[in-house]
Amino acid sequence: MSVTELMLSICIVGILASVATPFYISYVQQARVVSIIIPRLHLIETRISLYYSTYNRLPGNSERSHILEEIDTENCEVALASGTVTMTINAPESSSKLHILNNKVLVASPVVTKHKITTWHLSGELADRLGINY
Length: 134
Fold this sequence. Notes:
Layout: H1 3-55, H2 64-67, E1 76-81, E2 84-89, E3 105-113, E4 116-123, H3 125-130
């Protein structure tokens, strides 16, 4: 192997690394944000499912405090309407981990079949941005 071939292969590896690094950093940041939001959303969904099982109706905004009791909603504004959760990120400070998602909205709607919540439909700008819309 000549020195020229070695230098060429090192250049190619360097170019590939410089292209891949920003994508990797973006992926890691997205994973960190998802790991903050999804557990909160899962707790809220679980509480709504339990409420529905107990009272045979979906909670509204008047039951919001009962549903959100002991759930960390820091940097999140949560609203309830007929069981549908609207979570708006409120993190204007640049020191917040969720700052890049400030004012983005995630909507989680329950899918009710045969008197139980079977799945949740996620939508909104936040769901699209994080790739969790289903």
